[in-house]
Amino acid sequence: MKTFLVRGVPNSVQMDGWWMSEPPRETTPKTGTKEQPFFPRLIALLALVIAGDALTWQADAGLSLALFGLLILLVLWLRNSRSGGGGLVVYALLALPLVEQSQALSLAFFGFGLVLGTSWIVLGGWQGITRWLSTGLRFVLSAPAAIGSELSAAARFSTAHRPETSLTSIVQVWLLPLGFGLVFASLLLSANPMMESWLASISPSHWLSPNAIKRMLFWCGLAIVLLPFLAAASMQERLKLGFTGPRLPAAPATLNAGSVCRSLILFNALFALQTLTDVAYLWGGVALPEGMTYAAYAHRGAYPLLATALLAGVFALLARPFTEGSQVLRIALLAWVAQNVFLVLSSLLRLELYVAQYGLTHLRMAAAIWMVVVALGLALVIYQTIQKRPASWLLGRAALLGLAALYLASFVSFSATIAKHNLGKDVVLDPQYVCFLGKHAEPAIRAYEAAQGQRLCYGRGVKDIQITDWREWGFRDSRLQASLASPSKFEEAAVWPTY
What we know:
Elements: H1 11-16, H2 38-56, H3 63-79, H4 86-100, H5 104-123, H6 129-158, H7 165-191, H8 193-202, H9 210-231, H10 236-239, H11 257-283, H12 294-319, H13 327-358, H14 362-387, H15 391-409, H16 414-424, H17 431-435, H18 442-452, H19 475-483, H20 489-493
Helix pairs in contact: 2-3, 2-9, 3-4, 3-5, 4-5, 5-6, 6-7, 6-9, 7-8, 7-9, 11-13, 12-13, 12-14, 13-14, 14-15, 16-18
């Protein structure tokens, strides 16, 4: 290549002009992440995988899973310069339902606690509920990208001292499909006994037994799940981005001040008729028509009226902006919502009358809980209308109210409550329903059988009462085991027939 010389420039300047031919430095675009040393993350990952294997391998969800979640957040807290310790407290509170009893609801709160605890630690402390929840949502949405980023970092780390660039590209291309492929293979092996038997037939030694392979696949799956939590500390800038909140869709053309005014007049008239009927027959003691019982009257109205109240709350939320310019419309809206609150209270009374005759069930208990929640939500609508709060204020508090109801319900043994009520009250007893409520209904069933002197349930065996593995310990099962540890005197003396 021919050298280009600028005549007239001194030789010393020509020799010192090497910097003019230097290629521009590459600038890394800001992606909201901070590159951190890979080796400490690798050590933390191995430690958590070992701990997860010891706590959760071949064990049902229980105390050990709650402890493992606490270990994950402890590692994140230590890597985050020990800031945001309140996230550990938040997680502990949301993991309590799992310690009480392992079920779908408690597992949901466990996962929710992990996400919110991570969000709190990443933020470094309390910065408002909106920012806290938005950071948690952003963490969930960024988890797949974080897994890919960590796998790419592992590929770069493993090939950092190798001159062959092709090996790096091979690792980056195959690491992700092989990792998830191992997870899927583990799930298929656990679900297909034929595949497990085929694998056992080709295993050359004990260390390649199906159980050992499934355990190694479990390690791989556990490592993939842990990667987003280990990467959270390096994604702080991205996770802390502002959140403007969801925008409500524009109101349809049919929803306007005129339609709202006519709707409130019509709805108030219809609900006034229903309110007068409930006042007369439920609260006033007026005799029902011939051939109709209070139980039938209650059963016909409890659930439809609950659905009516829910729809009324949605309409009140949509109609409130159109009532701000008119005091009459605001009063009409408040009167209608107040009638809905009374409607929910009447539904509760209807349900109580029905339960007093036919007993409790899971569906009736759930309906009673949600009736109370809906009544409190409508009370929030009244407060929002009087104080002129925005819709986001109502939606946020309604969501917290629902979560609080679910959280408290996770500590209640529905089966034990139903069995105790139905066997202790003068109701139309359904033995088949009571006998198959599960193991937590057993104390009430045994107490009833001891008091009556005869069997209520035949052919059903209560299993899994004894807690044999401390990792599966739950407070509810522990209470059940303690209550059934010593049989009653009647059970000791009685000789039950076998079937």
